[in-house]
Every structure is written in structure tokens, then in C-alpha cells.
Amino acid sequence: MPAIFEMLNAITRRRTAESASPFASPKATARWLKNLHADSDYDAHHLLVEGLERFNAENATPSAARLDSLRRLEDAGLPLQARIVEQYVRNQATFRLARQALWRESWMFWSLLAEAWLGLLKEACRRAAGEELKAQRPAIAARVLRYAGLAMRWDYHQARTPPESAWRRLHKIYRLVERDGYAEQALTVASHPTCCAREYTLTVLMGLVNPLGYRAQEIEAIAHILEADASLPLPGPIALDGVHTHRVDLSLGEGAAILDQAGTPGRRLRYFALGPLVAHLKAFDAGSGPEAEGMRALTQQAASLIERGGVRRTHQRTHRFGRVWVAAGMERVLSALAHADPAPVRPALEPWTLRDESCEGMGFALGEPATLPRGRLVAVTWDPGENVWQLLAVRWSREEGGQHLIGAERLSRHPKRVQVYFEADVADAPSGQVWAVFLPMAPSEGGGSHLLLPRTHYRLGAALMLREGEAVYRLRLGEVQESHEDWLRVGMDVVGREQLAAAA
Length: 504
Hints:
It contains 14 helices and 17 strands. It has 504 residues and is an alpha+beta fold.
């Protein structure tokens, strides 16, 4: 009988050992890595990716030991990943199937690492977290930002724009880092000196360069140039005139954009001074020879894209040639939208030549140079007699082939001129009614409606009355989305609606 019990105990111990996690402790992880044998780097990398998948799927309680196990996996995986990336970049001209497999392996590695470190970060930020885990928050957050950014960079290799959810996650992590006060704390990640703000900035800059049409070698070359720049500008909370050139909104699912002439303050707006970086890219010395010439052309193009605020287009352009009528500037825009009023005063319309159009905006060609600052509002129509207008904002302009080219982003397909006024109990608010522009957004366009207000009439969180025809709406003003010279485009919430007779 004792022999039977010993045999049963042995079977139980063997089954327990087989079902135990290979990452149950740092020592178990070290044993698993030591036994990780494969015939090639690709096979070993694939096994490591499967190991990271299992590590994340275990859903174990985050702890200091768990962090140590993940670091061992990271230390073993990064050299393998570097060799896989080298193969992937080298094999672009040949071996199409192998190229796709290498891309998939690399993307999985970055994504799984980001997910693993994010789980630890969430636990480290909880009140009940151990002191040892809390002390590691800066290093954990820097890794989350780095690997999430690398996964987004790998989307560009497949000509894919990173989804809004990826940008929102990145912004949310950076807000957490700023809140806890270690955004610029010096760290070493992957043997490189860095900080959380720097890792965040690298991802934002790749979004500005927007290398959807670049080859893999070019994407990685630009990334390495940016990573090698020790004086990379970091985000700041206050816009300084003549210093900051770009901004990012931490509440939106998108990257950075050019800063217009008048910097707009906002609680979740962060500002970048990218002038020195643009100058560095334009003067980049790649040596001599044909490859160096190609590199110089690439850095010049990257500098131009950053100067223009990036290519913020996610839909294919359609070439459309023809004449449209344009009212440029807010005064003319208001006049153009006044068609419902009796005896409207028509604005001075300008004929522009349309070059192309997408779901997001339009491109124009002018025979003569025009002074149009970034952010200038323009109302566009094909036939002034129909009184059907679209409202756009100028995003970039440049000279090319003797023509003055302009790119504009569409803000609304159905802008409406409305009257707004403050309620009597709003402190320090201007009295009387003024004109504003309501920008409704169709549900299919995936955004919220905005309001264009004079700068003097903006109060964050204030109650504002909006009159349209016989209806009066009570609004709550949200954060500023963008400044258009003396006008602000702001978010809003509709609190209530009344008919004019009842409101009176």
C-alpha cells in the first residue's frame, strides 16, 4: 500500500510541474530561457514571442518578482529582435513571404512587450501596490511608452496609420507620467539614456514625419536619426511665442500638428519647439556618395513635413480640377454664411483652382502668391448662387513649379452662422449678442460638433446661449481645440433647448 501512495504522489508532482508556469519566479524564467534552443534566430524569436503571449495570458498578480521575470524576457529578446529587424530591413527587395513573416514577428514582439509592461504599470499606480513596485514606476512607464511607440512605428511599415486608440493610450500614459512627476527623470532603457518625455516625443515625431509611403530602410533611418539626437525637444505645458512650433492635444486620438500664430492655452495641450530639429535635419551630414545623396533628400523631406505640420491625411486623395469660389478670412466667411438674412451683403469672393480632394480636405493651386497664415479660415462653394458652403482651415502652403499650392483641412460641410450671448449671471462676460459659427459634425465623420467664437467671448465651462432660427440652445463651453487668428474653435455640450417664444 505505501508503494501505491508513493506512485500517486510522484504522478501528482510530475503533473504539477508540467502545468506550472515557466514564469512563476525569476529562477523559473531563467531556466526557461536557458532551455530555449532553436535552429535559427527566427525560430528562437518565435518561441520567445509565444512565451510573451503566455506571460500576458497568465494574468498573474503583478509583483516585484513578476517584474524581474519580465526583465529577463526583455533582456533575452531585445538582441534577437535587433537581428530579426536587421533581416527584415535587408530582405525588402527579395523574399516577399519572409519579409511579411519577419514584420509580423517584430510587430508582435513590440506589442506584447508594451502590453506586459502596461499591466505592471497599472498595478504600480494603485494605492495597494508594494513600495518596491512603486519605486519602479518611471522605468516601467518609459518602457510602455517606448514599446507602444515602436508598435505604432511598425504600422507605418505596412502603410497603415496607427489607430486612434493607440494615440489615446499613448497620451493617457503620458498624462499619468506627468501627474506623478517623473516625465523627465533620467533613465536607461535598452542600454540608452532616456526619459519618459523623450520616449513620448520620439513617437510624436514619427507621426509628424508620417512615413506611410516610405520604404522600410527609410523609416528605420529616420527613426535612428531622431533617436541619436541628444537635444531632442521635449513637450512643454505653456506655449512660448517665437519658441514653440507644434502642439499635441492629449485628449484626442491623433498626433501633433503645427501651431498657429497665436498659441492657444489648454489644460491638455502640450507644445514642442521643433525649429532646431528641423534645422538639424536640413543640415544633416550623411557623408558622400549616392547613398548619402539619398539620405540627404530623405532628411530634407522629413524636415519639410515637420515644418508643414505633418501629412494628417488618412484617406486617398481624388484629383478634381475645376474652379471654386472662396471667402478667405473670418469677416468674409460670416458674410458668405449670411444668405438667410434679408438683403445679405455678399463677400468679395476669390476664384481658386481645385487640385484634389479627400474626405478630410482640399488642395488648391493659385496663379499668384497669397498671404494665408496657417489656420486661416476659408469658406468654399462651387456655386455662390446655391449658398452651399464648406468651412476649411489652411494647413500648409508652398511654391512649386511656379504655382502657389495650398492644403486645407475640412472643419465642417454644413457651417451655420448663429447668434450667441452669455446669460446674465456669468461673471465678467461681455454683454449683447455676437455672431459665431456652429460647425456640426455628421456621425459618419467620427467627431463632435464645435463652435467658432471670438477670442473675447470664451470662458471655459461657462453657460452660453445659442440662437438658430426660432430655437435657443443652452451650451456649456468646453476646451479650446484650435486658434484661428482672433477666433477660437471650442468644444461644447448642449445642455437644453427651447423655442424662442418660450425663452422670451
